[in-house]
Amino acid sequence: MKLNELRDNPGARKSRMRVGRGTSSGKGKTAGRGVKGQTSRSGVAIKGFEGGQMPLHMRLPKRGFNVPNPKKLNAVNLGRLQVAVEAGKLAKGATVSAASLVEAGIIRRTLDGVRILAKGVLTEKLDFEVAGMSKAAQEAVEKLGGKVNILVAANTDEAPKAEQAPKAEQAAEAPAEEPTEDNASDEASED
Fold first, then answer.
1. N or C terminus: which one in the chain shows less Cβ crowding within 10 Å?
2. In this structure, what is the dihedral angle of CA atoms 22, 28, 29, 33, given to the nearest 10 degrees?
3. Is 44 exposed, middle or buried (0-12, 13-18, 19+ CB in 10 A)?
4. Order of strands across the sheet with 95-96?
5. Domain CATH code at residue 92
6. Number of domains in the chain
């Protein structure tokens, strides 16, 4: 057997049916599309169309809400951190952040941050600078004497509102303009 003699098994490759090539071919004239009607023409896409009846995907109840721009967070359990500390990948008493977890090989990339979950047992004191942490995990960390710093995204909608509020208050507090000498003379001449 030589490379130029390689062949597929007989019948493994079947050539496509060539439609519309004469009546004797078996798929001539209407080319297997039947007679007239919408689906005999090109440009038809009836996906889920039920002849005008309300389609199934519209009949079923809608539930829940999809966040338009969800954050992609890495979920890391306390037990996984304990294993990393025991293996020497994380230093005891170190500050755990997204960058330090990538460096330790616990997560592959930072995405939008890290969320710490409470599965497993943590016995070492660690400080955290993460995007999120479950309540049970936070309690476990604080019980060991660790500090938790939840990072807030810089481009939140709350920050601009907070900045705008003082400006509105300043405008309200500003006293009304007192008439200057030029304005007073203009008013007198009008009278």
1. C
2. -170
3. exposed
4. 95-96, 127-130, 148-150
5. 3.100.10.10
6. 1
